[in-house]
Amino acid sequence: MIIETLSWGKLEVDEMQIYHFPKGLPGFDEETDFALIAMEETPFCYLQSVRNRGLSFLLGDPFVFYLSYEFELPDDEAEELSINDGTVVRCIITLKEQTEHSTINLLAPIVLNPTARLAKQIVLHKAPYHTKHSLLQVQSVIDGKDGG
After folding, report:
1. Counting CB atoms within 10 angstroms of each CB, which of 3, 57, 90, 148 has the fewest?
2. What is its quaternary makeup (predicted)?
């Protein structure tokens, strides 16, 4: 399948890269199909709308940035995503001009079911996370400190 993107122009994606968000993403309810485009050998990927070339999100692997990140997926969410076994969790990253101000949204992870090709952004209620955690946590972990 060929999709159009702002960043790469026309891009060929495999159907195994396409995820269906039955209810869209918050604020983008009409956009239900996205391609997950890996950035090889990095903890990052892009979530690109297959219909709207101007709609994409930079995602990151939260477990790389916050080793202790965890949450329990509610049963109804797991059922909605037809999850029986493995999932992939990614979080939206907001890049800032000054890299040290870039953040990752740990409060609302995107949960992907690679088997059923279903996905949903889940808002975690009663969780200690918020929408703007620093990406510099990685440096703190590398230094052997818990940066918060």
Report:
1. 148
2. Interacts with translational regulator CsrA and flagellin(s).
Q: How far apart are CA 134 and CA 148, in angstroms?
A: 9
Q: pTM of this prediction? A: 0.87
Q: Dump pLDDT digits (tens) for 100-136.
A: 889 999 999 999 999 999 999 999 988 899 999 998 7
Q: Give the C-alpha separation, 99 to 111, whole Å.
A: 26
pLDDT tens for each residue of 44-83: 999 999 999 999 999 999 999 999 999 999 899 999 999 9
Angle made by CA atoms 36, 40, 45, in degrees to the nearest 5: 30
SS3 94: strand
Give the span between the Cα atoms of 10 and 5, in whole angstroms: 6
Q: Which two tokens stand for residue 53?
A: 């070339």
- Assigned domain for 131 exists: yes
